[in-house]
Amino acid sequence: MNVLVIDGQGGGLGKQLVAALSTQCPEARLTAVGTNSLAANAMRKAGAPRAATGENAVVVNCRSADIIVGPIGIVVADALLGEITPAMATAVCQSHATRVLIPVNHCENYIVGVPEQPISDLVAAAVQKVKALCAGEGCGKRAY
Prior knowledge:
By secondary structure, this protein is α/β, with parallel strands linked by helices. 42% of the residues lie in helices and 18% in strands. The chain has a five-stranded parallel beta sheet, sandwiched between helices. The longest helix has 16 residues, at 119-134.
């Protein structure tokens, strides 16, 4: 399974995801893409074997991902204080990958009906979902 972690700003969420996925899903081919170099470096330091930066890296890596994990803002153009370009959001949304989106209520995007939770709990839930998807549980790849 090709698992793509996308994060921006300081890369704190991506860092936590990479660290947890590296230990709990060792069979996954993990790639981290930061919308900026700070985020990419944070994920690289957390153990991402492959890391890249920027819009083109998001677009290219979305093509081969089986699972994309990140804050919900990665599907909203201009989210993360403007770091998510329309091309990035489109690439994530049009990817054949299953998306595991973390409901982070920041930057003028709020997900109603989802109670506020500590980031560590959200990361743990996302990692468990990725682990289940890697094991063949859940929706997995869509058949068109």
